[in-house]
Structures are given as C-alpha cells and as structure tokens.
C-alpha cells in the first residue's frame, strides 16, 4: 500500500485530495492546526491525523516519524495568506512577509529535505500546491504571490536535482474555500475543491514528467 503525507489536510483542497487518495487505497497521514477539523477529516478519510503547525520543527519531526515506514508522496498543501485584509506592498511589513514565507516556502523545503531519502528509495513524488498568484500581478496579493513564486522556483530546481523523484508544482485555480473567502474574493462563485482534487489524483496516478501544471489545462486535455 502506498503512503502519502498531506499537509493542511483538514479542509479545502487538502481534505478533498485526502478523500481522493483514500478512495484509491492510499495510506494517509494528514496534518492541520485545528484539532477538531483534523479529527473530522481523519475520520472521514481513514487517515492518521497529527495536529500542529508545519512551521514548528517538532511537529515536522512528528510527521516524519509517522511515515518512517516509507513514503511515496509528499503533498505540500498547507498555506497562509498572511495579514488580512491583504495589504498592498507599500504597507506589507517585513515581519508579515517573513511569516508567509515560513509557512509557504521554508516549511515545505524542510519537509522535503526530511523525507527525500525515502522518496528516492521508493521513486516517489512531491506535489507542491501553488497558485496563479505566483505568476500574475494581482493587487494586494504581493506577499502571498511572492511566496508561491519562490515555492515554484524551489520546485523547478529540485526537479533538476532529483531525477528519480517526480516533482510537480500545481496551480489548482480558484476554489470555493475558506482561504479564498478570507482573501475577500467571491468564493461561492468558484468550483468546489473536490473538482481540482480529482484532477490532481489523476496526475499522481499517471505520473507525468516533473513540471508546472494547471488544473484547468489538465481538465481540458484529452
């Protein structure tokens, strides 16, 4: 049985992807900061839930211990918008940007480094969830978008350095999630995260070449 570790697995895309992989017979470890929401998601998907913050080294160490028997897929999905309402760059405090990077870039890298030996051994995969904010110039999205751009380039270089591990950085597009709502966007008009999760499950199962993928392009592909 294959094993996946999904961060931010209590709601939104993380929870939906956990459900998709569970349906495919995967063994799952998921984490989130909210113990109640995590417990509900774990019960629904049959996953092992470990509550905590991915920026905490002790929590990351606990996640790594939970998959010490072998890991086939790491999904870096946990993310933060940073200060809300989201400020323009002329009002974005450096400390606020540092906090965004801690969750969206540094924690994913630390987890990658910790589980790479297992992923190399099992010819596993890494799926880093990114955003169109990494490549578009949306006003007030500078802090979040900059962090996702950094995650994309990190993924790009990692793909070159780790030929035996599939590395995908995927833009799921707008989804009806609490995060999109917190950003002040009309989340009700966006599709449910289950749609993107189904596409990402197919990406994992078909194992395409390492690279950047947009869910909208994969839906349109034959």
From TrEMBL:
One of its GO terms (molecular function) is oxidoreductase activity. This is SDR family NAD(P)-dependent oxidoreductase. Pfam families: adh_short (PF00106). GO terms for cellular component: membrane. It comes from the Bacteria. It comes from Actinomadura bangladeshensis. Gene3D superfamilies: NAD(P)-binding Rossmann-like Domain. Keywords: Oxidoreductase. Belongs to the short-chain dehydrogenases/reductases (SDR) family. The lineage of its organism: Bacteria, Bacillati, Actinomycetota, Actinomycetes, Streptosporangiales. PROSITE patterns: ADH_SHORT. InterPro entries: NAD(P)-bd_dom_sf (IPR036291), Sc_DH/Rdtase_CS (IPR020904), SDR_fam (IPR002347).
